[in-house]
């Protein structure tokens, strides 16, 4: 082998890895082993992984043999990919959503997206730590904490910088080069937020583009899996592997003719000069001086690259809050359905069981309480009142939201800061988002102790349903014009 894997995998992208394996400079087995060695060395510093797939090396060896005998399956053949711990796998890895109640739970089959990755030749490297129950357990629970795994730490400033969103372990692992890329899930901000805070690219696809079957749910109307990676190219490759029609997820039935199995054809370096991008200033108002400066610099990049920038546009949704009744109803319904199918030896088979289990094991299970679980269990909506509430909840977003402002100004996309505020509008409609690194703040996002430390920050591009090709083109053009991504100083 002519490459030094220990050094090379620090920032190697999927294309480079595939070329190295195809040329014989590297094998999947060697790649997986190098990542496992890094995990053993660096994961104790950031707590990003819950477990390594005990079969990963054997899977890699079999894929190497397959490459040598029948050829490669494609751009993910032999590539190690990490999964968030709410995504089912049929193998010897657990699926727990970060809860000690499910710490010994094995899923009977792969989630749809896990099966798609296996079919594409990816090596499922392990399960990432996450905010327990995708941060729908307690309003007091900090991002990145789970009773099963403890705290995820941001490798750019462990214990000092915000990790953001429930896919924090997936993002921290990719940022620290403990995996080639990862799959997260998002209800509202849980892919985009962590990717932004870890100098990564994240894509929250349109709901229905990638199936949710086999993923521990929060919201049937908002949940979606999506890629987290170091580059837009890698994210585009991964997205193409995830999409597809699933008979077990009705949302995917609406996506034929609007999905692509190769999003890399939309990697257009010069795309910004063809675009009109709106700036919704309302969502810039809470930024500190440094992150506002990063956003102003990003706007200047758009202009320098030839984009037409419309500054300012208004979404008229600021006074329409999140509807907890709707989300609590969906969470209770979806979680009861998931838990009811678990093996009989599991201690919980309903939300009511889960609440009782947590109370019985309060010392380890209830560090931050379970007010959201209790609120969901007590939710009194029936199917009829739920549908009426959901309609009421979505009406302002449909009539005054993203489509409205894009049509009003003839825009291709909106550009938002990489925090959570502006992501709720897209979440309510199930619309796509993509984040890309935009700058490094001297303050970062500081935790409660007030320490001042540097930290990454990203911009977010938002568009209408199934506009992933446009958003990928915009993000790639921005990325290639700036190249802000840099790894954390971990060795």
Automatic annotation (TrEMBL):
Amidase domain residues: 31-417
Annotated Gene3D superfamilies: Amidase signature (AS) domain
Pfam family, one: Amidase
InterPro entries, sorted: Amidase_dom (IPR023631), AS_sf (IPR036928)
NCBIfam families: PRK06828.1 (NF005300)
Protein name: Amidase family protein
């Amino acid at each position: 082998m002519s490459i030094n894997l220990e050094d090379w995998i620090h920032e190697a992208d999927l294309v480079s890895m595939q070329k190295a394996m195809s040329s014989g400079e590297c094998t999947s087995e060697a790649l997986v082993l190098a990542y496992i060695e890094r995990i053993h060395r660096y994961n104790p510093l950031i707590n990003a992984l819950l477990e390594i797939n005990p079969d990963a090396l054997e899977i890699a060896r079999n894929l190497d043999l397959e490459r040598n005998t029948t050829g490669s399956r494609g751009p993910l053949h032999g590539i190690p990919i990490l999964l968030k711990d709410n995504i089912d796998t049929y193998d010897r890895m657990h699926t727990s959503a970060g809860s000690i109640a499910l710490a010994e739970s094995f899923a009977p089959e792969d989630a749809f997206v896990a099966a798609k990755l296996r079919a594409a030749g990816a090596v499922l490297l392990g399960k990432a730590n996450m905010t327990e129950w995708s941060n729908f357990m307690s309003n007091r629970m900090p991002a990145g904490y789970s009773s099963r795994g403890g705290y995820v730490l941001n490798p750019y400033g462990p214990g000092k910088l915000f990790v953001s969103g429930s896919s924090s372990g997936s993002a921290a692992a990719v940022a620290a080069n403990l995996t080639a890329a990862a799959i997260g899930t998002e209800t509202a901000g849980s892919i985009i937020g962590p990717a932004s805070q870890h100098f990564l690219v994240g894509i929250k696809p349109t709901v229905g583009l990638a199936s949710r079957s086999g993923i521990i749910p929060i919201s049937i109307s908002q949940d979606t899996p999506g890629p987290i990676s170091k580059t837009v190219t890698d994210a585009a490759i991964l997205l193409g592997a995830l999409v597809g029609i699933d008979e077990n997820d009705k949302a995917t039935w609406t996506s034929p003719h609007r999905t692509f199995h190769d999003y890399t054809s939309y990697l257009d370096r010069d795309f910004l000069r063809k675009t009109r991008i709106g700036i919704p200033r309302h969502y810039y108002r809470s930024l500190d001086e440094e992150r506002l400066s990063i956003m102003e610099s990003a706007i200047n990049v758009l202009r320098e690259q030839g984009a037409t920038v419309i500054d300012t546009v208004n979404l008229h949704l600021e006074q329409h809050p999140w509807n907890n009744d709707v989300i609590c109803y969906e969470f209770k319904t979806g979680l009861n359905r998931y838990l009811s199918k678990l093996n009989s030896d599991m201690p919980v088979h309903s939300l009511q069981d889960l609440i009782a289990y947590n109370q019985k094991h309060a010392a380890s299970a209830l560090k931050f309480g379970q007010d959201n679980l209790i609120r969901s269990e007590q939710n009194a909506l029936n199917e009829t009142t739920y549908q009426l509430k959901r309609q009421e909840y979505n009406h302002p977003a449909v009539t005054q939201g993203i489509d409205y402002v894009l049509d009003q100004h003839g825009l291709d996309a909106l550009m938002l800061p990489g925090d959570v505020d502006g992501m709720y509008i897209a979440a309510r409609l199930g619309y796509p988002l993509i984040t890309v690194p935009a700058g490094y703040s001297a303050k970062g996002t500081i935790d409660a102790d007030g320490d001042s430390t540097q930290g990454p920050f990203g911009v977010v591009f938002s568009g209408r349903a199934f506009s992933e090709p446009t958003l990928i083109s915009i993000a790639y053009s921005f990325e290639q014009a700036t190249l802000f991504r840099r790894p954390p100083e971990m060795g």
